[in-house]
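User: Modeling request: complex.
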Amino acid sequence: MLEILSDNWLLLLVGQWPEGPMGGLVATIGLALVSLALAFPLGVLLALGRISSHKIFYWPATVVVYLVRGLPLIMFIFWAYFFLPLVIGTSVSGVVTMAAALILYEGAYLSEIIRSGIQALPAGQMEAGRSLGLSHMQTMRKIVLPQALHNTIPSILSQFISTVKETSLGFVISVHELTFAASQVNNILLTKPFEVFALLALTYFVLNLILTGVVKLVEIRMNGTRPVAA
Amino acid sequence: MIEFKNVSKWYGEYLALDNVNAHVRKGEVLVVCGPSGSGKSTLIRTINRLEPIQKGNIIVDDVDVYNCGSIDEMRSHIGFVFQQFNLFPHMNVLDNLMMAPVLLKRFNKSQAREHAMALLERVGMGHKSDAYPGQLSGGQQQRVAIARALAMKPRIMLFDEPTSALDPEMVNEVLLVMKSLAAEGMTMVCVTHEMNFAREVADTVWFMDAGRLVEQAPPKQFFEQPQSDRARKFLSDIKH
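Assistant: Request completed. Predicted assembly structure:
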């Protein structure tokens, strides 16, 4: 296994870059980061829709969340792969397709995390803002969301770990990421699938172990820093 | 200045306010009392539309609260102090006071800061302007909450059981601030169980029971010669 690693570490780390597109572990982390960064604003909007008393906001947000929760991620990847080019009228690279699917999927899950954060705040926070003369949106922006998002940082980071794992599904539409790179290595070696895929599993595991450690650290640091509404 | 006209409110089947008719004059200090569940908190929360009503009208400064152009504008002239303080825990004391006046453009930033600091001094919290609400005692938080409401320069102040969540030794510091406001001529509606406050400071006492406004009288008359059996029983119960 060590020999496989020492012969192929560059391919596993960055894919065919700089000759080809960025791939490997760097692409996996990059894809997860970009997806989550863009899924975050979508998640906030969906969360606001889910708690809205206006049907035109509530129903679309609720349909999206229920669809995402009720269907496997790979359905969204297929749809993005086959339909996104039709809809926007131009061909789309695998990475963009994968990112689009991930953004929608993670956005929906983030929205439920954010919604729970909003609803966990005492109703008195919204009432206090409204009583001062702030509108609903002003109170959301200045009072409710800053607290709700702060309180849900650990859950949002956990979702990031899921996202890292989910990028591996990009393999089915030939996105150049870590799993794709490992599969290339396997095709070159031909006789060592067990070692190659054990190495792949180990890489994901160690990466996520580190990220879990980061989440734990953040949780510990957040405990007892800024007081939350009681 | 505040007028209730045939106001009724239901929580589902439960009648929380039963045809309330009354008014509060400018500069009047009104204390609303009554047993728990009598509708006094519900009543005060209807004045700035925190609770929907199903019947009647509430007129504040000639404007129908439940039928007006901008409830936000209306509310910005009515200060509200909560039992649970409801300070914003993610902002320090000064920002709690400055946020709304600056956001709603009542003052520019330096005016708002100056006004906020003066208010904090006034409630004896000037030395805590950098502290976060979680670092303050209940009495301190409530004094900051009063200052926060005053920061918008309201014409009316509403107090919903402002001392009920406080440890006994902190009740007085909050009542003192309320007394000084009353002495200045602020129009105040206070839901409270502090009968000494009612006796000393109130111009009028309203007694509520089962959603109805049973009695309205000056404090002396209310405490010495209550008209209804229900008020007599309430007053004798709280003496013990």
